[in-house]
Amino acid sequence: MMLRLTFWLALALYGAVYAALRLAIHPPIPASVLTIYMLLTAIAILVFVSADERRFTQFIAPLAAVFEGRAPRAARIAVLAVIPLAAAWATYVRVAPSADAPFELRVIHPEPPSSLSVHGRRVEIAGLQNPLRAKGSELDKPIREGKTIYYQNCFFCHGDALAGDGHFAQAFRPIPANFRDVGTISMLQESYVFWRVATGGAGLPKSATPWNSAMPVWQDFLTEEEIWKAILYIYAGSGSTPRTWDDEVKHDKH
Amino acid sequence: MPGGITLQATGTGRPAFEALKDTYKGVLKISLLLALTYLIAHGLSSVLPAADYRALPVMGNRVAVWIFAQLHLMFGAFVLGVPIFALITEIVGVATREQRYDELAREFTKLLAMAYTVTAVLGCVLLVLLVTLYPKLTGYLSQNFKPTWILYVVLIFGEVVLAYLYWTTWDGTQGARKKWHLLLGLLVNLWGTAILFVADIWVTFMMSPAGIDDAGNVTNLWQAVNNHTWMPINVHRLLANVAFGGAIAAAYAAVRFLNARTAEERARFDWMGYVGSFIAIAAFLPLPFAGYWLGREIYQFSQQMGVSMMGGSFAWLWILQAFLIGSLFFAANFYLWLGMGRIPGAERYTRYQVAMMLVLTLGFVVWATPRSIIATGVEMAAMGGSHHPFLGLFGVMAAKNTAVNLMILTTFLSFMLYRRANRVPLVTWASAGKIVQGLVIAVASGVVLFYGVYSYYVTSMVRIGFSVYQVLAVLVAMAVFVAVDIPMLRGARQIGAIRWGEIPARAQYALFFMAITFTWLMGLMGYIRSGIRQYWHIYGRIADESAHAFTMTHGHATLIVSGIVIVFFLLVSVVFALAARHEDRPEAA
């Protein structure tokens, strides 16, 4: 019985997946990802039904009936009407003018430069470590000081909970980074974060277009040590740790 | 020649003298080709004005070198992958005493002579292009890596001799002498692997230079050779070559199946396609692990290069890669499930396909979820940035590692069900054996899921360590499963014989799809690997100061990759067509 309904079950499953993705997930899934998911769903259903001869025969039976003229006349007319209407609707959706801003393909984690200029001094990114952490000394005091620096400078955008939801956050596109997100600072080495803080939006490389980050160039307002202290705090305050490598590390083979 | 081998007849049924003559011809051909290459390269360098870079009209330097380097690499993978494929099937033939395996190995080995020639010609064109268009870089590499160049040439001649002998002594070393032929096959593969390892030296040095001073001179050759990415690329390419060889063999069988006129032919090529796909998929399963190791080494060598690759300008190409890899998993399972339709008794396992498809689809969905989502301003405002609070969890490696491990486990399970489809174990402990097998799969899945979820709560260094546990759990589960399966199915009752040739034609398109996808993946990942050096010839040491040092758009790059794949398949088709024509000739074996 179930086998005979293969085509209709496949159709219902596709619809159910679409409904679930549209209605059950909040905030809504962006159209680009929804397209990927629905494409994968369609491929998966087609692969599954055609991977077994009996399923496949039952799946194409209703289609064969329509296109070979064996289905009732009304069904054939309905199918032939739906095909151009669906094409027309898809075309309309594609070309209809919209007031929405265009898609933005922005590189979130652009590659850091090999070196950067901080207060006129050239700093090599390779091998760069937080000097406060590197000393192995007690971190409580610099973290406390970093917290003060954070609240005096960063808090307004990155928020009280370091979740990128400060008072000014919604005024920016892109909005400020959420340090509690596993995909932000916990994926990065401290040298990377230092680069982003010290050079801000103006220091983004070519690949990070469009250069619309509102992050200030903090080296214009903070000393190098203050930046490192703030970095210590954002890791400690968000409960994350910087990315590190094991002892064999990089340039030992050079 | 190793003692004990008497050349009685050749692969084409001619006397031993002819076999040696063929080998001699092969060596002569390569010698002439290399001499010609030297003369052309030297001549052009002398005639053209001295410069660091010379411009190639219309196509441009970079695209020309790219196309020939990639085609050379693909044919290189083919001529290294086919002997591995041939040796494996030959060994299976000896172990199972089934002559058809020997014939299959022999059928593919005969392609080698022609494929070597194409590979060599492409390599020589590449060398001329490099010497002529990039004299400064080529001069630097040849000056600093002279011993490896000499070794490379020696290895090429050795490989040609061994490969010709492997082919020409095939018929003369049947029966008691078979072990010597297997030894010859092993030597061909060891030699081929050595060639691959030497060629990887230059490529990996350009990515992760080591053993050099501040002026860029190599001060320690071994350190320069054994740089960060050398061994990971060696292992990755070796496994990929096996998968590639198997996939091309399967695609060849698919074409022959679709053109077959008799039931016997269909049965033969159906079986050949199965063997090819089996080897391809078996080698494909550990590839993601090897790739992850390579990625880790790249990241560890240079944060800049690592971020470029995974999070920066090349990140979107990984979504394409995810689609290709996910499609390979779909295609592999699709082929196996369709194949089960020709195996009596396989219907017992059809019901598991729903769950397996669900795991594969969810895995594919996770694998293809981008970390940074393309979104409109309204969508971004709703999400609070370009990271979706829920879907964003799928965008990181913790989720992707978990997904790929479960997809590997599922595909392995498909294989195992296929294997036992028409057999009923008769051993008294069969029920206990099946419970153990079920348990190891369940435990491995649990371990993979547990560490996948736990990864979100630990530091990146610990998380990377977790991926090792996940891989180990999957490998151990597969090993235990097979260790139970082999004795359990020994002497099993057969429900019926496999009806070779009675597989739907669409299964053959899956084989063809796999071969194309493997090739496309090689081109795409090769571009990413090379592209992340950006404007450096030798990363961080010698800058590319030519007009082509910019990173091109993804659309342009993928079009070139796709074009290369089309040209490769056209060339491979010519090799296969010529081999088939030779087969049809009356004097052919």
Q: What would you say this structure looks like, in words?
A:
The complex is a heterodimer of chains A (254) and B (589). Chain A folds into two domains: 3-95, no CATH class; 115-252, Cytochrome Bc1 Complex, Chain D, domain 2, CATH 1.10.760. Chain A is 48% helix and 3% strand. Chain A contains nine helices and two strands; from the N terminus they run ααααββααααα. Chain A has helices at residues 6-23, 31-50, 53-67, 73-95, 131-134, 140-153, 155-158, 190-199, 224-238; strands spanning 115-118, 121-124. In chain A, β1 (115-118) and β2 form a beta hairpin. Chain A is elongated. Chain B is an all-alpha fold. Chain B folds into three domains: 1-227, no CATH class; 236-342 and 510-543, no CATH class; 346-497, no CATH class. Chain B is 73% helix and 2% strand. Chain B has 20 helices and four strands. In chain B, strands 1-2 form a two-stranded antiparallel sheet. A two-stranded antiparallel sheet of chain B has the order 3-4. In chain B, β3 (536-538) and β4 form a beta hairpin. The longest helix of chain B is centred in the first third of the chain and has 36 residues, at 61-96. Chain B starts with 15 loop residues before the first helix and ends in a 5-residue tail after the last helix. Classes of the chains: A mainly alpha (254), B mainly alpha (589). The interface between A and B is large, with 67 and 74 residues.
What's the SSE blueprint?
The complex is a heterodimer of chains A (254) and B (589).
Chain A lengths: L5 H18 L7 H20 L2 H15 L5 H23 L19 E4 L2 E4 L6 H4 L5 H14 L1 H4 L31 H10 L24 H15 L16
Antiparallel strand pairs in A: 1-2
Helix pairs in contact in A: 1-2, 1-3, 6-9, 8-9
Chain B lengths: L15 H32 L13 H36 L2 H11 L2 H22 L1 H10 L1 H23 L9 H30 L13 H5 L4 H30 L3 H22 L2 H15 L1 H8 L4 H26 L12 H15 L9 H7 L13 H23 L3 E2 L5 H25 L5 H30 L3 E2 L10 H27 L4 E3 L3 E2 L10 H31 L5
Antiparallel strand pairs in B: 1-2, 3-4
